Amino acid sequence: MLCIDELRENEVIDFVDPVNDEKKKLREVMLARQKSLSADYVKAAGDSIQAQVLSSAIYRNAGSIFTYISLPREPSTDRIIRQAFADGKQVYVPKCVNGRMLAVRIGDLRRLRSGTYGIPEPVDCTETRTADELDLIIVPCVAASPEGRRLGHGAGYYDRFLGGTAGKTVCLCFRQMLCGGIPMADCDVYMAHVISEQA
After folding, report:
1. In what order do the strands lie in the sheet with 100-106?
2. DSSP H helical segments within 55-109, as ranges?
3. Where are the alpha helices (DSSP H) in 55-171?
4. For the chain, what are the domain ranges?
5. For every one of its 199 residues, what pLDDT tens digit does the chain have, with 9 covering 90 and above?
6. pTM for the complete prediction?
7. Which fold, 40-195?
8. Three-state SS at 181
């Protein structure tokens, strides 16, 4: 086994991670596919996905919900968030601080401001919860497989946040972004449920 102390000065060793390399290539393909989705498809499929979440037992039984703030060409979460407010549920959304993701409680979507990667975030972190303190965690993806493999954007925020609490995760994925055979590293978290517009 090579010890790093044995490397000669200025010697460069390439450590290739085959899983990350496969994921990077697949991510490029799926992001190109995502860009090709029509606005009509995104709207109709997103409405169907949100309706399925809201009619599910895991939503009905949840007192606290953590959900991403959707960007264009992602399954929307606006209706889920507004319905959760109306149902008296506690709503938490991501805020990225120093390379980690926090779940911060919000009471009004209008009070979010552009944050990490231009994604709307809460301004402060007055009330937070860890993943194991939340009843339902709604997760975005670039692509997912029906059995729970997930391809994210590659920063690892959700995998670090979730840790060993994947049992209450719901990943929202357009049917056209479902993909079998997504490579998974040891640190990647499988999703308990994947919801697309065709359940």
Report:
1. 128-129, 100-106, 90-97, 64-67, 136-139, 169-172, 193-195
2. 57-60, 78-86
3. 57-60, 78-86, 157-162
4. 40-195
5. 323 333 334 444 344 466 788 999 999 999 999 999 999 999 999 999 999 999 999 999 999 999 999 999 999 999 999 999 999 999 999 999 988 999 999 999 988 999 888 899 998 888 999 999 999 999 999 999 999 999 999 889 999 999 877 789 999 999 999 998 899 988 899 999 999 997 5
6. 0.87
7. Rossmann fold (3.40.50)
8. coil
